[in-house]
Specification:
The chain has 6 helices and 3 strands; from the N terminus they run E-H-H-H-E-H-H-E-H. By secondary structure, it is mainly alpha-helical.
Amino acid sequence: MRTVYPSPLLKTALVADAIVTGVAALLQLSAASWLSQLFVLPRALLIETGAFLIAYTILLVAFARSPRVSSAIISVIVLGNIAWAIGCVGLLIADALSPSGLGVGFLILQAVAVLIFAALEYGGLRASEPVARTYAAVAQ
C-alpha cells in the first residue's frame, strides 16, 4: 500500500468535499420532511443518506488533517464519489422515483458536485509526494 504526503490540492479538495458534504448531511437530517415534500423524494432516503454523509464527512476531515494518507484510501474516496454520481443519475434513469423538478435538480447537482470532487481529489492524489520507504520499514 503506497502512502503519500497529501498535496495542497488534495488537502483542499478533501476539506471542500467535507464542507459541502457536511452541509448537505445536516440539511437532509434537519429538514428531511420539508425536503421530502419539496423534492418528492422519500424521507427515509434523505435521512439514511444524510446519516451516511455525516460519517463520510468525519472521515474526510480526518484524512484532510493527516500528514500522510494511503493512496488506496484516497482512490476509494474518488471511486465512491463516482459511484454516488452514478447512483444519483441511476435513480433518475430507473424511474424508481418521480421527483419534482427541484428533486431532479437536487440529484443532478449532487452528481455534478461529487464528480468535481472526484476529479480534484484524483488530481490532488497525483500531485502528492510518495512517502519514501526506509530499509527498516521494508525489512519488517
